[in-house]
Design a protein that fits this description.
The structure holds two protein chains of two kinds. By secondary structure, chain A is an alpha/beta fold. Chain A has helices spanning 14-22, 66-77, 92-104, 116-121, 128-135, 150-158, 172-185, 194-202, 206-215, 220-232, 238-257, 263-277, 279-330, 334-340, 346-375, 377-391, 399-405, 409-415, 422-435, 439-449, 453-477, 497-532, 534-548, 555-564, 566-578, 584-596, 601-611, 613-640; strands spanning 2-7, 26-30, 37-45, 48-54, 82-88, 109-114, 125-126, 139-141, 258-259. Chain B has helices at 12-18, 45-52, and strands spanning 30-32, 39-41. Classes of the chains: A alpha/beta, B alpha+beta.
Amino acid sequence: MEKIAIVGSPNVGKSVIFNNLTGAYATVSNYPGTTVEVTRGKCAIHQKEYEVIDTPGMYSFLTITEEEKVTRTILLNENPALVLHVIDTKNIERMLPLTLQLIEADVPLILVLNIMDEAERLGIKIDVKQLENELGIPVISTISVTGKGMNLLRETIYNYVPVLNKKFIYNDKIEEAVETISSKILKAQYPISKRLFSTLILQEDIDIHSFIKEREPTVYNSIQKLIKEIKKGYANPLSYIIAMQRQKIASDIVSKVKSSPVRFAKDFADKLSKITMNPWAGSLILFIVLYYGLYKFVGQFAAGTLVDFLENKIFGEYIIPVLSKFIENIIPWKILQDLFIHEYGIINLGLRYAVALILPIVGTFFLVFAIIEDTGYLPRLAMLIDRIFKKIGLSGRAVIPMVLGLGCDTMATMVTRTLSTKRERIIATILLTLAIPCSAQLGVILGLLGNKPNALFVWLGVLCFIFLLVGFLAAKLMPGEKPLFFMEIPPLRLPKISNVLVKTYTRMKWYFKEIFPLFILASVAIWFGQITGIFDLILNVLKYPVHFIGLPDKTAVAYLFGFFRRDYGAAGLYDMSKEGLLTTNQLVVAIVTMTLFLPCIAQFLINIKERGLKTGVAISTFVFFFAFIVGYLLNLVINVFNIRL
Amino acid sequence: MKCALCGYEFSEKESVSTCKNCPLHKGCELIKCPNCGYEWPKEPEWIKKLGRT
């Protein structure tokens, strides 16, 4: 029985087309050796029976996910008589590169322009005949949920006659290399075209390389030599170069067949998109985003005005006096009163820090973050900083854990698993533990230094310098290949208010659920430490490193808070600053040291869990001592040069 | 759902399968993109219901 494979990205309506073709009967099973599900069913067109396979989502033949690997294996091993590439018509430009790869693979192919109704609603029109001419394959437009176009698709499947697939040409160097590999080097027979195999070889697909090594071990050295030679001519990886050239071919075709009423808006968005990734203009845009988004809105408005209102008015005048009176009335013992009220009580410390200090700061931070996220700016930021990250042994992909680290370093350390090499994972863990402040801490710091621009500049400068220096040294100490990175850039768009509000609310709820119990627990631990004398003992020990960096004794309390959570410690510094116990110079030294300090106990444990006992303990120990050494040096420089911030 | 970072579209089920190896995944309220690893908190049920009406 002939097989029909339905392929395409996730959420393009493949399963609805599958159900339309096969009816209700389908078998779902894991693809052998994987946990990926593949659905199979039968369909009959004019009494001719076919086996239809609904494959897992696939973006490209250059596979990343397990799902993509399974789909590629099906195409390579099951030799389908026909492949239906289903695309979401409104995203035709992003999806056409896979069509080009399938044409390049020389598989019998029909392109299905699905979800046509949504495209039409957006005013998008596709000249189907012209697209057929451009691609050299049948093209059918469908609305799978209503069944529109399905009869034509069935007829086209039944009447399909294999044609010689069109050839799309890359630039001279790549084309020459593809030709050399496919016609001169590869000798054996392959399940799909040698041309596609050659591009995947050039793109250094690990599985394809292993496949070639197994099938034609004698030619493998020549292939390696050729790749090395071609790579010399490009600053970027060949996978990136080929993907970009293929995208250009796709964009050229789309420009001939698609008309859209929002051309002006799209042109503007495209131009703006390019500007955000330009090293100079992009850096300026990043500075503006950080200045207004973080410094002005989070640092000055939230950490200044909002915190001031909540702390002094709501907590200072209402909540704390009322609850203090209530506790004093119902609990006669001072020792037990201390658990709830007075200097380190749950209400005065844990509740006040969580609600009056941290909540407005993280709330506004998450609001800004949701706006940035919803515009599609984050992937552009990843592309912008990719070249800087490469110098410190990381790729733009590491922007994901680094950005998440601004929310929570512990969670971000787990995300370092997605980095491709062990070297990258270790460097990213060091940098997260050391130099990425979490959102709450960042907000408190911005609040502390919001009206002291010189001090803020010194803090930021030291942090950036340490980030780059430690990253650079770590990359030198752990030599390895430059990591590869390129990602699909979704369109730039105006943020939707509903999306932004939902994201902000969801994140605030999650964060508050995370920190509130910890803040209460820390208050209880401090209370317990006080009545047993452990608190004073630890403070006496902590006084030495605190003196070492030129800070008053009481700063040891903030550092002790910092062991529980860095933001809790930053809030302690906030209290000290408000009481006038720290000069601006001391404040900068204290904040720099605390930012570099181990984020929290959870971070220490996750470092061990993710990087192993030896590396995890080594990273945490290094960070602890390094933070105080930097604090000492900063204090020394400030004093020697008699700097007044 | 769609990843805000890489644009990858996936189902919640796929996200859960990505988290299988994480020791903290039980009771975790984060969605993780299977393509790039980016994470964000799950949308509460009442907001989902509100969106459907």
